[in-house]
């Protein structure tokens, strides 16, 4: 017997319709590429998304055709989020930090038909347009009178001219909720990039689960600053969760430095921010140098790579900001776990609470997790046994776009490539990415643990631990360190700093001071590139 409830497909257009009707006057504020601050409301987002929808229909794109964006976080990008997916086309967010050759490869693989880009990325488009064989329309996100002349880009037009002349009425089509809505290529640290293809259903369910109190706890009382880019995994689904809850949105545009982010938080009274650790590193450095404090920021979600404990305590102790440590990946839309306490933890001391907060957190409803050993058998949830982490759920991929790389699933579970423990309360802690784990004398050393100790030293700005070949132990860890400006620490001092903080055999064999650590397109340390930089390095003990 079937239930007798209405059957409405879960569609992205419903988010902006809801935001317009219930939170029409809530603000969306953007720092623009032009440098000024743009301010309007969800009602305006909805109106202009409908104009985008009309403009796309006029181009006679087919249902499911890909519309690419190469853009910062801003209001026009948000309109494309709703306008493109709402019509049944697929929003393909491209990562401008990738090499132009890789961008061209990805655009061709995705068979993008339209390319919408911020003026900052004109040099990239100039370099790649002749190689992008499927793109028929180029749209630069600017006013009609700002289109640069003589670019050589065929049919280049401004976003405002393209959509501005269109009617603002539009009836969003109703279709199968399993239709594709957006796509994102993984950074491709190994092999060619592969795309996760999100659906309307997966996006809405993910946005709803992400907004729940034990996830990101979003509401109409929030003022949210997503520093995490809209060009990577839909900015963790935050634009969708924001529309679903009516939260005020603040977009940083291209200005991601510590000073600009701090000033935007203060000026717009942001209470909730989201970003990867490297962004907050820059902001904390800026605040410390000027002895600054926040007046409104209350919580920040940090993920994308392990958040060093020193950062969690700095936010908490110096600035009164609660850090929500979160974990996920492109293939998971991306949210998997968020670290929030349970009722029984409320009576714990601050120090004991902090021990829990350092973990990556509990699986949110919808995400099932397990850890397995080398034999593929389940490992216990005791907080000690570590193994490969596998996940399944309605916003986790079943296949990559075009079946690239074959089926990624093992008995219905997606192997994350991460190594983790899970404790009896369900808190997951990432030990390492499987390819970064250091195998020393039959034991595993977590590169994250080694980095976290170094990061707690007051003179260390950034630290990356990698394994080096060793004749006796197979591999031994070394730590590459960037010092804070004007600060000093010697190799011996830093190695002594490890004493008593980790087991002796987990202390790195050497410290290498470097000017910078290579970062990838999403702000993560690129250990493969660091290994290339250090290819002539020899371990002192080898
Ligand atoms: P890519 O896999 O291409 O690097 P993703 O953005 O999908 O790009 O990265 C997902 C990976 O990032 C995870 O598998 C994990 O290794 C790492 N990661 C994400 N969040 C965290 C976190 N909070 N702690 C540790 N690692 C994390």
Overall description:
The protein has 542 residues and is of the alpha/beta class. The chain is built from 16 helices and 25 strands. The strands form 4 sheets. A 13-stranded mixed β-sheet has the order 2-1-11-10-12-13-14-15-16-20-19-18-17, sandwiched between helices. α1 packs antiparallel against α2 (42-58), α7 crosses α9 and α10 (258-268) crosses α11 (277-290). Adenosine-5'-diphosphate binds at residues 186-187, 189, 303-307, 325-327, 329-330, 334, 360, 416-418, 430, 433, 522, 524.
Helical fraction equals 25-40%
Query: What is the percentage of strand-forming residues?
Result: 15-25%
Q: How large, in whole angstroms, is the Cα Rg?
A: 23 Å
- Lateral arrangement of strands in the main beta sheet: 2-1-11-10-12-13-14-15-16-20-19-18-17
- The CATH architecture classification of the largest domain is 3-Layer(aba) Sandwich
CATH topology of the largest domain: Rossmann fold
Q: What is the CATH C level class of the largest domain, in words?
A: Alpha Beta
- Tell me the name of the CATH homologous superfamily of the largest domain: ANL, N-terminal domain
- Work out the helix count: 16
Oligomer: single chain
The largest β sheet comes out as: 13 strands, mixed
Poorly predicted spans:
none
Main traits of this protein?
alpha/beta; single chain; GMP Synthetase, Chain A, domain 3; seven-stranded mixed beta sheet; Rossmann fold; 542 residues; binds adenosine-5'-diphosphate; 25 strands; 29% helix; 13-stranded mixed beta sheet; 16 helices
């Amino acid at each position: 017997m079937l239930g007798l409830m209405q059957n409405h497909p879960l569609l992205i257009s419903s988010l902006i319709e809801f935001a317009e009707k219930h939170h029409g006057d809530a603000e969306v504020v953007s720092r623009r590429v032009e440098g000024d601050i743009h301010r309007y409301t969800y009602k305006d987002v909805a109106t202009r998304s409908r104009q985008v929808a009309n403009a796309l229909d006029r181009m006679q794109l087919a249902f499911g055709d890909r519309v690419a964006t190469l853009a910062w976080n801003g209001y026009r990008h948000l309109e494309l989020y709703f306008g493109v997916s709402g019509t049944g086309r697929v929003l393909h967010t491209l990562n401008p930090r990738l090499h132009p050759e890789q961008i061209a490869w990805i655009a061709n693989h995705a068979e993008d038909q339209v390319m919408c880009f911020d003026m900052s990325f004109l040099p990239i488009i100039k370099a790649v347009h002749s190689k992008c064989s499927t793109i028929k329309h180029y749209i630069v996100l600017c006013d009609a009178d700002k289109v640069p002349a003589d670019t050589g880009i065929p049919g280049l037009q401004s976003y405002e001219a393209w959509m501005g002349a269109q009617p603002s009425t539009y009836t969003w089509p109703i279709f199968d909720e399993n239709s594709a809505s957006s796509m994102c290529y993984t950074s491709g640290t190994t092999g060619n990039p592969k795309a996760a293809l999100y659906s309307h259903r997966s996006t809405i369910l993910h946005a709803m689960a992400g907004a729940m109190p034990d996830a990101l706890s979003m509401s109409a009382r929030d003022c949210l600053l997503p520093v995490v880019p809209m060009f990577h995994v839909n900015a963790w689904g935050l634009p969708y969760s924001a529309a679903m809850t009516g939260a005020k949105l603040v977009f940083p545009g291209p200005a991601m430095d510590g000073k600009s982010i701090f000033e935007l938080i203060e000026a717009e009274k942001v209470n909730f921010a989201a970003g990867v650790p490297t962004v907050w590193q820059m902001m904390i450095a800026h605040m410390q140098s000027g002895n600054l404090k926040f007046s409104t920021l209350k919580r920040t979600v940090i993920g994308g790579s392990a958040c060093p404990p020193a950062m969690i305590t700095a936010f908490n102790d110096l600035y009164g900001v609660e850090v929500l440590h979160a974990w996920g990946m492109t293939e998971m839309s991306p949210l998997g776990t968020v670290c929030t306490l349970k009722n029984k933890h409320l009576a714990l001391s601050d120090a004991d609470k902090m021990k829990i907060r350092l973990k990556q957190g509990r699986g949110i409803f919808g995400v099932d997790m397990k850890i397995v050993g080398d034999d593929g058998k389940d490992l216990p949830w005791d907080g000690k046994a570590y193994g490969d982490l596998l996940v399944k759920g309605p916003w986790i991929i079943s296949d990559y776009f075009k079946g690239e790389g074959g089926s990624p699933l093992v008995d219905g579970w997606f192997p994350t490539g991460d190594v983790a423990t899970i404790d009896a309360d369900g808190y997951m802690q990432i030990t390492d990415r499987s390819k970064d784990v250091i195998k020393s004398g039959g034991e595993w050393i977590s590169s994250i643990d080694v980095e976290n100790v170094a990061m707690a030293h007051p003179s260390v700005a950034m630290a990356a631990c990698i394994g080096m070949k060793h004749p006796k132990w197979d591999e031994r860890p070394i730590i590459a360190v960037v010092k804070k400006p004007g600060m000093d620490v010697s190799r011996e001092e830093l190695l002594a700093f490890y004493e008593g903080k980790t087991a002796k055999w987990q202390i790195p064999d050497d410290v290498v001071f470097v000017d910078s650590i290579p970062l990838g397109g999403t702000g993560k340390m690129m250990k493969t590139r660091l290994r290339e930089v250090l290819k002539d390095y020899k371990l002192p003990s080898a």
